[in-house]
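dude i think i finally got it to work??
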Amino acid sequence: MTRPFLLGLTGSIGMGKSTTAKMFAEAGIPVWDADATVHALYATGGAAVAPIGALFPQAVVDGAIDRGALKKVIAEDKTALSRLESIVHPLTAQSREAFITDHRDADLVLLDIPLLFETGADNLCDAVLVVSAPPEVQRTRVLERGTMEAAQLDLILSRQTPDAEKRARADHVIETLTLEQTRAAVQALIAKIRGRHA
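look at this
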């Protein structure tokens, strides 16, 4: 069975990953989104609700996983995160495999995975694209959203693989300074992959 070329997309918070993924989708590339998959698993009727509820009943509110309650559980119980991941990671992997199978006739599929290196998902990809921007641009973008304090941002960054390491491990890096430049780089990369794997 032929399968599409799998391009993994990652990048630290505020680097323009979602915007870049959208540009691939606009170019007609199927995009599997890890965050959206987890949201669906946590929603009412989602496959993760019952198994997470069995472990952490307090995290289920109105038939869905309450992320705030779940964060509280993880903060209070040192073993909670690994137990949670043992439920969520296999379900996420199933969703990803089904997506790839559904799009097996495509020549290229983008896997948008924030924790690509952290979860070892880079090993599944034929190539990895990292989106990046200077640290001051990153900080400004995140703090301008108004959803997070500087201390929260620092905590998130401390848990993510550093940008320099991501860039070093990537096959392709796109600087996301302007939308025009990013879109041109996305189109050039699609053309390059298609040319190489035609």
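Strands lie at 5-10, 31-33, 60-61, 64-65, 108-112, 127-132, 172-175.
im so relieved honestly
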